[in-house]
Design brief:
alpha+beta, 207 residues, 7-stranded antiparallel beta sheet
Length: 207
């Protein structure tokens, strides 16, 4: 996700991006990945890794089935307070919410937040395309989780170590973003040093 945001920030002057993933019933946020630009540096953190119940505001956001632009003032008028990201102290004045949807089902929300300006029409169109890509990626990952569950359970430490080494070697030779995405998915689904592989992709690959 940091790689995605590192391209969006210079193109459309976006201060913060967040990938919000819900549970199937849309009662909880399962994961949040947040990336922002601070002093010219792009950071990315997982701010939620365990399910968190939806608040009144996040419940409203999870119900958006089309892109929505809202300002700090809009949120205050509707809910008496601005929307602030979980476990993140920074308050933003301009917000954009794009549903991550597949076959009519909301999987998550792609959020863009700015301090001083609303997202431009060109930026909104571009980010809607990114949201479509993220939706497809999430669906593929869910499918692979189901397929690989028995495989992952049967792997012993030696086999996991061998597969990790193989994936990292392939990562060093990857020349296209598609190859990198597939390698990351496989490592993540098999629980093979996923954090390290993701960090390697972000820091070493430039596409």
């Amino acid at each position: 996700f940091q790689g995605v945001f590192s391209k969006l920030h210079p193109l459309f002057s976006i201060d913060c991006g967040a990938l919000i993933i819900y549970d199937e019933e849309l009662n909880h946020i399962n994961k949040v990945y947040l990336s922002e630009a601070t002093d010219g540096e792009i950071s990315c953190v997982e701010t939620i890794s365990d399910p968190v119940s939806l608040s009144l505001i996040t419940k409203e956001i999870s119900g958006f089935d089309f892109p929505v632009l809202k300002s700090r003032q809009d949120w205050i008028e509707d809910f008496g307070e601005n929307h602030c990201l979980n476990h993140h102290p920074t308050e933003y004045h301009f917000h954009c919410y794009i549903p991550i949807e597949h076959n009519g089902k909301i999987l998550g929300t792609f959020e863009l937040h700015n301090h001083n300006r609303e997202l431009s029409p060109d930026g909104l169109t571009f980010c809607c395309n990114i949201a479509d890509f993220l939706a497809g990626l999430l669906v593929v990952m869910d499918q692979r989780i189901e397929v690989l569950k028995p495989v992952n359970q049967d792997l012993n430490p030696t086999e996991k170590s061998f597969l990790t080494e193989q994936l990292l070697n392939q990562l060093e030779q990857a020349t296209a973003i598609g190859e990198v995405v597939i390698l990351f998915e496989n490592a993540l689904l098999l629980n093979l040093k996923a954090d390290f592989v993701e960090l390697s992709i972000v820091n070493q690959q430039d596409f």
